[in-house]
Amino acid sequence: MVAIKNILNKYSKKLDRLDLELIIAYVLGKNREFVLSHPEYKLKKTQITNLKSQISRRINHEPLAYILGEKEFYGLKFKVNKNTLIPRPETEMMVTLAIKKILDTKYGILDTKIIDVGTGSGNILISLAHRLEHRSCLPAMLRIAKQVGNKYKFYGIDIHGKALAVAKQNAKIHRLDKKIKFLRGNLLNPIISNLKFISHNSKLIILANLPYLSPEIYFSCSKDIKKYEPKSALTSQKEGLAHYEKLFKQIIGLKQKCSMLHALCLMEISPEQKEKITKLIRKYFPKAKMKFYKDLSRRWRICELKIFNDQ
User: Fold this and answer.
1) Could you say which of 14, 66, 158, 292 is the most buried, measured as most Cβ atoms within 10 Å of its Cβ?
2) What is the torsion angle, in degrees rounded to the nearest 10, for the CA atoms of residue 220, residue 167, residue 264 and residue 298?
3) The domain 2-60 is classified under which CATH number: 1.10.8.10, 1.20.1250.20, 3.20.20.80, 3.40.50.300?
């Protein structure tokens, strides 16, 4: 039998130390603290065989999240697999911004529909719903608003059935499966084709972390990304903005059906796309209000778009 310290010594030069510790913990069914505090602990033969398999996967650049089957996002753990994009830390700011907008009385008091297009594992929508459903985390004004009948309606949309299956599983894990309705379709199509989900004067918050890497940028990505993560969730034509252009066209179609539409869109972008998406927005919504936010690395990451019926 082999002790934890022997495994760490043997593979530390081949793998990132943190990754190795987490893989050992995963195989043992323990946490990382156990691995660090029990270096003399000896693994069984079956555990060693399993461990070698998982280490081999990581050496071959398979993302750690796929090996462990989960990824932490906004303080919650989400199941992920090869059918879903791995949640990124920079995307957490979309949840934070959405919460701030919802705390605004325009969204906090009135009936609000929150739509996550391209939901993937559901990490954005579930994190947001989880925070809103835990009233103790919210300011007193919003807690009162919820008590007098304000109801948030959450919709997660994805074109891929296997990704939706993962999102539904995550919603159930976090006890939000009764709060979130998952729909299969291309961006807003399930909403546009069935207006029972919204009313003529709906207030919408649309969250979109759509594929936005241009083919050129995707080509320069690491092997972890190109070899394992779903390309369809990462790349888009027209310099990475084809999916967003389609979303804008769909919003126009939605406006034609909803006489008093008021929509707020939060979209994750690639930093170099700020000027390009600005021009694209002006093409479809000349009077719309825009605002851009930088991530913790001081790079442009989120585009905020406000659309009213008369725009």
Assistant:
1) 158
2) -40
3) 1.10.8.10
